[in-house]
Amino acid sequence: MHFSAIIAAALTGLAVASPAHHFHDNQTAQIAYTYSNGTYTKPINVKVNSGTQKLPSTGIVTDVFVAPPFDGRHYVLTSCSFQAPTNKSLGAVSVRKPTTVPVHPPAAVGYVTCKSN
């Protein structure tokens, strides 16, 4: 029984000494492109509610992966719109969880705007 008390005290000390849990950035969405040849980009951070941001693709995009901000407990409903390099609208999507959406017809992407409440 004495040994159990020592272990419990040691574990409590470790819990108190460990750093606080850091939540994900709830002001940043992640965007990744899938190209027509099947390759894809790593997720790129996009500030939410910061207006239109230049996020050019290096080719024709067939799918866009969108991961909305995460507040530590759940994903934040986020709407992202995509524009071609000529500012022509490629469409918009609202997501509540990480989602891959098709770009139809496939096109080059130049700009992204993401908003949440």
TrEMBL record:
Name the UniProt record assigns to this protein: AA1-like domain-containing protein
Domain of life: Eukaryota
The entry's keywords: Signal
Presence of the UniProt keyword Signal in the record: yes
Record's signal peptide: 1-17
Organism: Hypocrea virens (strain Gv29-8 / FGSC 10586)
